[in-house]
Amino acid sequence: MKYAVIDRGDPLSKKLAEQFHTLVSNKGLVQDDQSPEIVVSIGGDGTLLQAFHLYMNRMHDVAFVGVHTGHLGFYADWQAEELEELAELMTKHEPQRVRYPLAQIDLDTAEGVSTYLALNEFALKGVNGTLVAQININDEMFEMFRGDGIVISTPTGSTAYNKSLGGAIIHPSIPSLQIAEIASINNRVYRTLGSSVLLPEHHHCDILSRKEQKLLLTIDHVNIERDDIRAIRCSVSDLRVCFARYRSFPFWTRVREAFLGYDVK
Ligand code: NAP
């Protein structure tokens, strides 16, 4: 099996990456950074986001495994001390492959439509002040948003930025997108729903901003500034991200351990 390792770049993650190569060499795993079947991310959830964006054009062929060198992550669930066990399992066993929903973002600009995939979320903010944008759901006007921004997250991204905004945590088996507001302006003149909205996979939303507005678009950790956006369509992608599971670690156990700190293992 062909594999690649992406590390966060800190001394511990780099050291573990070297150890991993040594542990799996001559045991049936072949390093192939161009077309890996398994990508081992060593660092944190942020490192896995980087690995995902690096191999985004291989979503049909690649599965991810995350090792954390800081705190327990949602994508990085193997501990540094377990690296040997992970390497052993990877050389001897076929993993269970779980597939989670992704967000598709279609930017309609004067140059045409460009498409992006988000593993966590897509965030939209105004660069020079308040974001003013019309939000349509399924091609019908839903609300006129005024405020700091809008975050549209995937189920696995619901534990990230979305959670800080008071959004719900969504189990990744529910293909959906969650729209959360960042500090919307609500008074007698301006009105937004004020609560998060969950769109099922057969729904979509369009964000139409004022023409002269400069926008900051953040897709996971990637920032793009543009002033020529006509519309942004957000939908659940037909593509899924695949994670290789060598042992069970239920989603609600991760949530409990990451946020509440109860470790019952
Ligand atoms: P960062 O600002 O260095 O780290 C953001 C934090 O989010 C890190 O602690 C990261 O975990 C954690 N994280 C990433 N994905 C997560 C997930 N699915 N569930 C729970 N926690 C998660 O930026 P970064 O490392 O490049 O990550 C980009 C992400 O930061 C964005 O996708 C967004 O979700 C998040 N973010 C959050 C806020 C907020 O909560 N107010 C604001 C902006 C961005 P690790 O330490 O394990 O890497």
TrEMBL record:
Its EC number is 2.7.1.23. It is found in: Cytoplasm. It comes from the Bacteria. NAD(+) binds at residues 45-46, 120-121, 146, 148, 159-164, 183. Keywords: ATP-binding, Cytoplasm, Kinase, NAD, NADP, Nucleotide-binding, Transferase. It is an enzyme of class 2 (transferase). It catalyses: NAD(+) + ATP = ADP + NADP(+) + H(+). One of its GO terms (biological process) is NAD+ metabolic process. Its main location: cytoplasm. Gene3D superfamilies: Probable inorganic polyphosphate/atp-NAD kinase, domain 1, Probable inorganic polyphosphate/atp-NAD kinase, domain 2. SUPFAM superfamilies: NAD kinase/diacylglycerol kinase-like (SSF111331). One of its GO terms (cellular component) is cytoplasm. GO terms for molecular function: ATP binding; metal ion binding; NAD binding; NAD+ kinase activity. Pfam families: NAD_kinase (PF01513), NAD_kinase_C (PF20143). Its cofactor is a divalent metal cation. The active site is at residue 45. NCBIfam families: PRK04885.1. Involved in the regulation of the intracellular balance of NAD and NADP, and is a key enzyme in the biosynthesis of NADP. Catalyzes specifically the phosphorylation on 2'-hydroxyl of the adenosine moiety of NAD to yield NADP. PANTHER family: NAD KINASE (PTHR20275). Belongs to the NAD kinase family. This is NAD kinase. The lineage of its organism: Bacteria, Bacillati, Bacillota, Bacilli, Bacillales. The gene is nadK.
